[in-house]
């Protein structure tokens, strides 16, 4: 469960803060959904730090490599019938004291450390080229080299039938393994594919599509050193993390990243001094806005409108100037095409603004 250690916050007000340790257990996770009805796994104050475990639902693709006692307990004790309507194992939720609907929470991601040095990529039935590959699903197991911060493929195998059950455990020790990607190394960039606050709805919301609450954004830039801003929809925010990745490309074309469990350190700060309509990402170099839609045209339009909002409301540009700047200086990209609701992101460099674009920084 959770334990607490006192330390001094690095925030500008330097008030005493706490670091909480939140283990992922059957009692502290919710599998496949966000909901305001979930009992908080942890209650914190603004400025507190949280060391939390994020567990991949793909650990069963190579249980001999990706399981440990804690992971195995989650897979064994959580009823498969309750793993719905989505697929991701979410740790939390975390209740932030004094957070009200409409407030923003600022989540500063400080560290993301692999729980073990293995991950899985599935070319899935929801992948973009599933039909082109004859409806075949293939698992590739990767090994992480933490000293070089790279990953390389260990082997691959064809998944029998259709990969449908969240938390599937395959019989990989006796599967037909194939060599994969000989001589190729991949840069590791650990990040969270899914994180967010509870939506203000009556029924559980699937973790699969992204939305204004966050969810399955699948942007590989949401890693250590980045900051995400989420708008609270319910009292306390009820923030959860999951779907940890070792690496992913924009598009996530096969349906998954290198899915691998992570230990995450982050600080949550309650913000009542500004508002933003969609999940907003700050990196040391960039502002990144996200847009979602049923197709890429709608996702692009929503992303464009929220980038316009950022430049007009937060940077003080006229809408006409902001529109011109977006065309000459903002880079739009496809975040993912495999989560039902599609994603587009827009990146603009902070250095082009006076004060390096720190309007949202309260300090």
UniProtKB/TrEMBL annotation:
GO MF annotations in UniProt:
hydrolase activity, acting on carbon-nitrogen (but not peptide) bonds, in linear amides
Superkingdom to which the source organism belongs: Bacteria
Alphabetized Pfam families for the sequence: FmdA_AmdA
User: Could you list the residue ranges forming a coiled coil in this record?
Assistant: none
Q: Which UniProt keywords apply?
A: Plasmid
PANTHER family per UniProt: FORMAMIDASE C869.04-RELATED (PTHR31891:SF1)
* Protein name as catalogued: Formamidase
Please report the organism this UniProt entry assigns to the protein. Answer: Novosphingobium resinovorum
């Amino acid at each position: 469960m959770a334990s607490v250690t006192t330390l001094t916050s690095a925030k500008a007000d330097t008030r005493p803060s706490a670091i909480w340790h939140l283990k992922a257990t059957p009692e502290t996770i919710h599998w496949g959904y966000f909901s305001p009805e979930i009992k908080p796994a942890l209650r914190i104050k603004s400025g507190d730090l949280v060391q939390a475990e994020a567990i991949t639902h793909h650990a069963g693709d190579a249980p001999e490599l990706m399981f440990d006692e804690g992971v195995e307990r989650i897979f064994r004790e959580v009823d498969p019938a309750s793993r719905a309507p989505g697929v991701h194992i979410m740790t939390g939720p975390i209740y932030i004291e004094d957070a009200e609907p409409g407030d923003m929470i600022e989540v500063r991601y400080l560290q993301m450390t692999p729980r073990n040095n293995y991950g899985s990529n599935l070319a899935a039935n929801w992948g973009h080229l599933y039909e082109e590959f004859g409806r075949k699903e293939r698992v590739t197991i990767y090994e992480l080299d933490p000293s070089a911060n790279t990953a390389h493929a260990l082997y691959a195998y064809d998944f029998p039938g259709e990969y449908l059950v969240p938390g599937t455990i395959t019989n990989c020790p006796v599967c037909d393994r194939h060599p994969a990607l000989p001589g190729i190394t991949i840069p590791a960039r650990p990040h969270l594919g899914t994180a967010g606050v509870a939506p203000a709805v009556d029924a559980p919301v699937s973790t699969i599509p992204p939305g204004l609450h966050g969810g399955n954004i699948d942007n590989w830039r949401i890693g250590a050193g980045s900051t995400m801003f989420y708008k609270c929809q319910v009292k306390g925010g009820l923030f959860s993390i999951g779907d940890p990745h070792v690496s992913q490309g924009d598009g996530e074309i096969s349906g998954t990243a290198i899915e691998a469990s992570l230990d995450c350190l982050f600080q949550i700060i309650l913000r009542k001094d500004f508002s933003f309509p969609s999940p907003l990402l700050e990196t040391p170099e960039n502002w990144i806005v996200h847009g979602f839609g049923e197709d890429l045209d709608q996702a692009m339009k929503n992303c464009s409108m929220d980038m316009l909002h950022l430049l007009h409301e937060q940077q003080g540009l006229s809408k006409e100037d902001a529109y011109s700047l977006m065309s000459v200086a903002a880079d739009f990209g496809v975040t993912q095409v495999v989560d039902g609701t599609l994603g587009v992101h827009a990146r603009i460099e902070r250095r082009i603004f006076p004060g390096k674009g720190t309007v949202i920084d309260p300090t």
